[in-house]
Amino acid sequence: MPSHHIGRPRQRPGWSRKKEKTMNVLVAYGSKHGATQGIAERIAETLQAAGQEAAVRPVEVVGDLGGYDAFVIGSAVYA
User: Fold this and answer.
1) What percent of the chain stands above pLDDT 70?
2) Which of 36, 43, 49, 55 has the lowest tally of Cβ within 10 angstroms?
3) Sheet of 70-75, strand order
4) pLDDT mean over 23-36
5) CA neighbours within 13 Å on the CB side: how many for 21?
6) What does DSSP say about strands 70-75 and 24-30: parallel, antiparallel, or unpaired?
7) What is the pTM of this model?
8) What share of the chain is helix, strand, coil (3-state, %, to 5)?
9) 75 near 35, Cβ under 8 Å?
10) CA pair distance 16, 13, nearest whole angstrom
């Protein structure tokens, strides 16, 4: 396979691409020192770069979940 195809999905003749649904994603986090917040923000940026809507909120202020299609929830783990 030629190298110009690496990383791109192949389009087969006669196939049409389905329109992808944009999802509204909540990225909620619990963070004591800010590291988990930074990771949550990076996850949201990655989702947005992929064409999804993403909101980042600390778990303490998350209210109504009705407007979201998916959730990413993160917290620190202390042993």
Assistant:
1) 75
2) 49
3) 53-58, 24-30, 70-75
4) 93
5) 5
6) parallel
7) 0.71
8) 25, 25, 50
9) no
10) 8
